[in-house]
Write a structure and sequence with these properties.
This protein is mostly helical. It is built from nine helices and two strands; from the N terminus they run H-H-H-H-H-H-E-H-H-E-H. It has three domains: 44 residues, no CATH class; 69 residues, no CATH class; 69 residues, no CATH class. Helix 5 crosses helix 6. The two termini are 33 Å apart.
Length: 204
């Protein structure tokens, strides 16, 4: 049974809940199990004793690697270099299997190759649905930033790593520091993720 949560709203919900509850003994006697698939867990209190919620983890690094190899084999496209594969796998973190496959397919259509920037752009579209989060791409670079030499030197040293480094940067909003945040992910081709307290408060 798919998308049960859609049927548990409105006046007809009580009838569906009662029918499911009445089938419990019949399913037990016939050694059958009712499997419900839904994007969110919304179990009515009347059925809370007879349902068990199972959460499935998002694909891990090995799963994403297998999907990338499968896409390369099925489309007859060559795998990118190890460095670009690392960028693709990093960009794919947090995406469901279907979302990652769609992003890879879109990359092949638009870029004619596997491109991590396309995957990041698809992830940014999902994040935009959250009122308090932003994922943005900027053209600013550290070379265009005047001052803040210590921060620029620290960011430049980190940019020599193959894998992006996650940093939590908390400061007063000033022009120089804002540009630094925008330019931080450019060496790795990453987007900037920002949390806004105003958007969070506005959502509630």
């Amino acid at each position: 049974m798919e998308n049960l949560h859609r049927f548990l709203r409105g006046d007809a919900a009580i009838d569906i809940i009662q029918k499911i509850y009445n089938l419990v003994d019949q399913y037990k006697a016939s050694l059958k199990t009712l499997v419900v698939l839904a994007p969110s867990v919304e179990i009515p209190i009347e059925l809370s004793k007879v349902f068990t919620a199972l959460n499935f983890d998002l694909p891990g690094r090995e799963d994403l690697q297998k999907m990338l190899m499968y896409m390369a084999e099925s489309t007859k496209k060559p795998l990118p270099s190890e460095e670009k594969q690392e960028a693709l796998l990093e960009a794919g973190k947090g995406l469901a299997a279907f979302e990652f496959e769609n992003a890879l397919a879109l990359s092949l259509v638009t870029k004619k190759a596997f491109d991590s920037t396309v995957v990041m752009e698809q992830k940014s579209q999902l994040i935009r649905k959250n009122a308090s989060l932003m994922l943005e791409k900027f053209d600013e670079s550290l070379e265009n930033l005047g001052g803040l030499d210590n921060l620029k030197s620290f960011a430049s040293r980190l940019s020599t790593r193959l894998i992006p480094v996650e940093c939590f940067y908390l400061a007063r909003l000033e022009p120089g520091k804002a540009i630094l945040q925008k330019a931080w992910g450019k060496p790795w081709g990453c987007l900037r993720q920002a949390w806004t307290s105003g958007g969070c408060l506005g959502a509630w």
